[in-house]
Specification:
Immunoglobulin-like; 5-stranded mixed β-sheet; Cadherin-like_domain; 25 strands; Cadherin-like beta-sandwich-like domain-containing protein; 0% helix; 349 residues; mainly beta; Ig-like_fold; 3 domains
């Protein structure tokens, strides 16, 4: 039983006039009915033929004309795995349906089913991700041929998304915990310490025919599904990273966003009425900057000592002068700037 060959098993009296059709880059042949073309005798033919997938009808092209045409084509959705074929005929006939990889005539049948009676249906398996050829043999004398194509996939979703961070672009990347992944959730967040300067994302597409790009803003770079992206630098604060998936059809897209917040440098915090010791490798540090963990009451005093050269200590006399906890070195007014010991200017925080 052969597929896609005009005139195959056509009985005497039926003239197969093949013409070439180009569909999706494939050259298909079908018998073109003509006014002068002889009709297939009733004893060799079907009377009706319909297709459906999941209960939805599938259109035959051209329309079914059993007396004059043996060759047809149809298109199904990308994810269709089987197709229902319903055939009718008059008289007593044995009708056998089969499906096969259209590109490999030597491969085993995907399905082979005999119709129980006229008007009955059979279910045939379809070639996954490829073109399927279907044959309907009537009494092993006449064969109707149907070529089943698939529409391109419109699946632009991810099935997984993970992240990792490092202290440099070329350093060792360790796992970063994101929000729990779900294909329908497009926004994710994570926070990293200040020393973490780079992140990589690893997206996995749900459909192997989809493509994915990762990057910041409009600067997106293609990434192999299931593999890590290149290192993406992180600024202090929020960093929005885009993951864009494009389906096989080339037009359906879905965008995921991962916002990674990099914390600022660590700050020094301390309790009131305690001594803060600031280490300095310089004999005379240029400035001393202190940030408080909470506001101090007016006139609350914090003693700060600077250790210079690793030995001596010096009280630089920092004092909180109002409730928003700005610290100044010496001075009498809120806007004064005094000296932090050794004649060095302090800085308001």
């Amino acid at each position: 039983m052969l597929l896609g060959i005009p005139g195959l098993l056509a009985p005497a009296g039926l003239v197969a006039a093949p013409t070439a059709l180009l569909l999706g880059g494939l050259s298909l042949l079908h018998a073109a009915p003509a006014a002068a073309q002889a009709q297939l005798p009733e004893r060799f033919r079907l009377t009706s033929l319909t297709l459906s997938v999941g209960g939805s009808p599938v259109t035959l092209t051209p329309s079914f004309t059993p007396a004059t045409n043996l060759f047809y084509r149809a298109t199904v959705d990308y994810d269709a795995t089987s197709i229902s074929v319903t055939a009718s005929w008059s008289g007593s006939k044995a009708v056998l349906a089969s499906s096969k990889d259209w590109r490999d005539l030597t491969a085993p049948f995907l399905s082979e089913e005999a119709f129980a009676s006229s008007g009955s249906s059979v279910s045939l398996n379809l070639k996954a991700g490829g073109v399927t050829g279907i044959n309907l043999s009537v009494d092993t004398t006449t064969t109707y041929n149907i070529t089943i194509h698939r529409r391109p996939s419109t699946d632009a979703t991810l099935s997984g998304l993970t992240a990792s961070t490092s202290t440099s672009a070329s350093g060792t990347f360790t796992a970063l915990t994101l929000d729990t992944f779900a294909a329908g959730t497009t926004a994710y967040t994570a926070t990293v310490a200040n020393e973490r300067t780079h992140v990589k994302l690893t997206p996995t597409v749900n459909d192997s025919n989809a493509t994915v790009k990762v990057g910041k803003g409009t600067s997106l770079t293609a990434v192999t599904s299931g593999s890590a992206s290149g290192a993406i630098s992180l600024q202090v604060g929020a960093n929005a990273i885009t993951v864009k998936v494009t389906a096989q059809d080339g037009s359906t897209t879905k965008t995921y966003t991962v916002t990674v917040t990099r914390e600022g440098p660590p700050t020094v915090s301390f309790q009131l009425n305690t001594i803060l010791l600031v280490e300095s490798e310089e004999d005379e540090p240029e400035e001393v900057v202190v940030e408080l963990s909470k506001a101090l009451s007016e006139s609350a005093t914090v003693e700060v000592r600077v250790r210079t050269g690793g030995t001596a200590t010096e009280n630089v006399g920092l004092q909180a002068v109002h409730q928003d906890a700005h610290l100044r070195c010496g001075g009498d007014g809120d806007n004064d700037r005094g000296n932090c010991g050794g004649g060095h200017e302090g800085r308001e925080r």
